[in-house]
Prior knowledge:
Keywords: 4Fe-4S, Chaperone, Cytoplasm, Heme, Iron, Iron-sulfur, Metal-binding, S-adenosyl-L-methionine. The protein has 405 residues and is of the alpha/beta class. Helices cover 39% and strands 19% of the residues.
Amino acid sequence: MGSALPLGEPVPADGSLPSGIRIDPSTDFGVYLHVPFCRVRCGYCDFNTYTASELRGARQDQYADTLLREVALAAPVLERAGGNRPATTVFFGGGTPTLLPPGDLARMLGGVRDTFGIVDGAEVTVEANPDTVSPTVAAELAASGVTRLSIGMQSAVPHVLAALDRTHDPENVRTAVSAARDAGLDVSVDLIYGAPGESLADWRSSLEAAIALEPDHISAYALIIEDGTKLARQIRRGEVAAPDDDLQADMYELADDLLAGAGFDWYEVSNWARDAAHRSRHNLAYWVGSDWWGFGPGAHSHIGGVRFWNVKHPAAYAQRLAAGESPAAGRETPDAEARALESVLLRTRVREGLPVGELQGEGRHAVAALIADGLIEGPTALRGRVVLTRRGRLLADAVVRALTE
C-alpha cells in the first residue's frame, strides 16, 4: 500500500492554493489519474495500490464517479489562481487502470475533457497489464481518445517474472502490443532489471524480446528495494539475494547498447524512444517542473510551485469527496533553495540537460572536474549545458551531489 505520505501543512476543505499563488497560464498542464487496483500485489511494489481484500469499503465499480468529484473540485481551485487551462497530457497510472472497464476510463477522460479541455494532439496514456488488453479493450480505449498504451512487460523470462511476483503470461505481451497497434495506439513497454536470480543473459533475452515487438518507446528501470515490501522482507531474512550494483550497471550498459543499436535514443536516464515525437511528454513534464494535478488516492500534484498530496486509502478518499471536501492530506511550497536543488536533481536526468548558468557557486566550479571524470559531456558543457555521459547516467546521484554541494 505504499510508503507513508510526507508531512506538510493542512489544506483547506475546498482545496484552495495558498493566498498569493498565481499560476502561469502558459505553463503546460498535465493530468494524472491514479487507478489504485491490482489483482495481485507484486513483491517489489511500493506504489499506492490495493487488492480486492484490502479495499475495506471502497468499491471499484464506483471509483470513476468518485474521481470525477475531485476533477470537479479542481476547476474552481485553478480558476481562482488564474491557471485553469486545457490539459496537454493525460496519464492513467496505477495499479492497473485496465482492471476497470474501458467505459469507466472513457468517462474519467471525458470528465477531464469537459472540465478543463484537452489540447489537440494531446498525449493520452493508459498503463496496462498485458493480460488485461484485448482487441476490444484497445479499440474502446482508442475510441475514447487514448493515444498511447504503456504495457508492463517487466521481463520475457518466466523465472524472472516469478521472482517479481508478476502473474501475466509473457506470451500475452505480443498479443497486447498487436491489439494496441491494430487500434492505432502508440506503444511503450516497461522493463525491470536486477531481479533476484536474473542473469545478464536473462536480461539480454528480455531486451531482445522487447525490441522485437517494435514499440515506439522502452523504459528500463533498475529494481530498487523499498522498505516495507515483501521483497525487502525476503532479502532481510536471507531468502533471496539483494540486487548486485555491478551487475545492474552491466545490465544498464547492455540496455543502452542494444537499444541504441535498434534505433532507440535515450532521452532520460531510464527511458528510450524511437524518435523525439515518441518521448513520454507526460513524464517529461515531471522532470522539467511543469504543472500537473494528480487525481486519485495518494496522488501527488504540483501547481504553481505548490506541492500537495491526497489521502492514501480509497475509502478515505471517497469519504472526503462524498462530504464535498478536498481529499488533499497536506501540502508544501518549497523555497528557492529547495527548488534549485530539485531542478538539478531532475533536469540532469534528461538528454537536454541543465543550463550551466543555473548552477550555484561550488556547483558551477564542479563542472570541470566532472568533465575530467567522464561524467558529463565536455563539448556540451562548453556550450552551456550539463548533459550526462553514459558513465554519468550510472553515477547520476554522485553528479547531483557534486553540482549542489
